[in-house]
Amino acid sequence: MKKLLATALFFVLSLSLFAQKDNNSLNAGLEVGLPVGIQSSWMSVGIGATAKGLYGVGEAGQVSATLGFIRHGYQGSSTVNGGVSMIPIMGGYRHHFESFYGEAQLGLAIVNSAFRVEGFGASGSTLNGSVAIGGGFLYEDFDFSVRYQGYGTGFNTLGLRVAYRLPVEF
């Protein structure tokens, strides 16, 4: 445990040496998740929100940390009620090209599912690996982005996000 804490402290201190003071921000955004592949036949469009912290490194880079909640309902059957919700906990790197950027993320997702069919119901929760790749555009205080995200269960989405950016010093 001490070794892990020492490694984490070294990593944070190393990042702070290369931090760009004017390149840190927090943003909060609304998400739309479009199911991709076979899931699109039985899952509805997901809606949720995410918060993202960005810490400037180098001239054009930022390390990102994202936490969110996205909920998808079941569709296509009048006898099935319920849905799937995801809580992504992601870390990543964003690289800027003027107002455009590319971003890759890796992390975990808590996936909760619940359904009820004609009086019978079940629910469950799993912790899965998650990976995402995407890009976006910055306009004034807004961040518009699109990404492809896999949740480790074979469930994949195309995510669309609009966020409001707040510059911060940390």
From TrEMBL:
Q: Which UniProt keywords apply?
A: Signal
Keyword Signal on entry: yes
Q: Where is the signal peptide?
A: 1-19
Protein name listed in UniProt: Outer membrane protein beta-barrel domain-containing protein
Per the UniProt record, the source organism is Litoribacter ruber
